[in-house]
Amino acid sequence: MSSSNHDDPMKDNQKKRSAEAKTVRKIVAIVLAIVITVIAVVGITGYIYISSALEPVDPDDTTKEKVDIPIGSSVSQIASILEEENVIKDSRVFRFYVKFKNESGFQAGEYSFTQAMSLDELVKALKTGKVVKDPLLTVTIPEGKTVAQIADIYSRKTSIEKEDFMDKVNEDAYVESLIDTHPNLLSEVILDPEIRTPLEGYLFAATYDFYVEEPTIEQIVEKMLSKTEEVIAPYIPAMKEQGLTVHEAVTMASLVENEAKTKEDRQKIAEVFYNRLEEGMPLQTDPTVLYALGEHKDRVLYEDLEVESPYNTYHVNDLPIGPISNFAENAVEATVNPKESNNLYFLAASDGTIYYSETLDEHNRKKNKYIN
After folding, report:
1. Chosen domain end from 87, 104, 128
2. What is the pLDDT of residues 335-367, one digit of tens each?
């Protein structure tokens, strides 16, 4: 009996130790499983992140962005600049990539990069000092063109039909989406049913490079609107000081564009228009009559002046309802920075010289002298 009583506590201790060992093994197994899972998750996440960072920022965005690489820039500084300009996703990944590939000899200079460029293309460009990609299509849109004329230019340069282009830019849902995308440039006012073409005046005159052979209408319009926004943005504070909305300023710029060619004359004519508006006088500018008529004529006749249209500035005592064409940047500059005067009239002689007058009598005398 005494021997049996002595063995029981030992067995109990063994059972306890065995249970504790099992618990420890379970805890160790759980901890190891957690650690392995965490390592796996971190590894997979890191792999996905690095793989993503090695891809172009936006394979579909071929808009050229100017990037300046200063002389003496290190790889680290170049990587930071490229990330700031949104040309690469992660400067650290770029640095490791360059180190892994053993690349060097990057050149300073002003580059034109796109978000569609791969890291290899960027590295090659930085080593040669040149942009790797050449445009597949280049289209120049001159100043003073209407949307219909712009559509015609693209129809001759691409397979896009002029009618399809015009249908798209007159589609309300599409225009509304563009207003949402470019709220600093476009406003609901362009949806006024009396406006002939909502985007009239907003497709900037410039040379456009495309990196696809057949850009879509949406790609063309987006590129042109982005250019307009880039040009207009610095002048918006001055527009507000003048008491102008962006739409009014763009409308005024289109009038100035069509009335004069030199920067100085555009500033003088802008002032004439402002002076007339202040006096409650109609602007009486012939290009608005031609736009209202929807045709080009070498000479505007008196009967043409009678056309009833919110664009005809012989018919309305205000700015026309919207722009009549696109314009050059100096037309915008003239709009926000006119040359101060008391002039209310101007006329253009056959040699292109523009004469200004403060009174109707003075204007008529100059008209008899230089026109008749």
Report:
1. 128
2. 999 999 999 999 988 888 999 999 999 999 998
200-257 pLDDT per residue, tens: 999 999 999 887 888 999 999 999 999 999 999 999 999 999 899 999 999 999 999 9
Pairwise CA distance, residues 153 & 144, whole Å: 13
- Quick check: helix, strand or coil at residue 263? helix
Q: Which amino acid is at 34?
A: I
Same domain, 123 and 176: no
Same domain as 243, residue 218: no
Q: Which residues contact 324 (CB under 8 A, 6 or more apart)?
A: 146, 200, 201, 251, 254, 255, 258, 287, 288, 291, 311
Tokens representing 53 are: 């960072």
Q: Which H or E run includes 253?
A: helix 246-259
pLDDT tens track for 216-226: 999 999 999 99
List of residues 6+ apart from 131 with CB closer than 8 A? 64, 111, 112, 113, 125
Q: What is the pTM of this model?
A: 0.66
Residue 110: pLDDT over 50: yes
3-state SS string for 285-319: CHHHHHHHHCCCCCCCCHHHHHCCCCCCCCCCCCC
215 neighbors 165 (Cβ within 8 angstroms): no
Residue listed under structure tokens 């962006």:
246
208 lies in the same domain as 121: no
Q: Rounded distance, CA 328 to CA 80, Å?
A: 35
> Is residue 29 pLDDT above 80, yes or no?
no
Residue 137's contacts (CB-CB under 8 Å, 6 or more residues apart) are 157, 158, 209, 210, 212, 213, 215
Give me the chain's average pLDDT, please.
Answer: 86
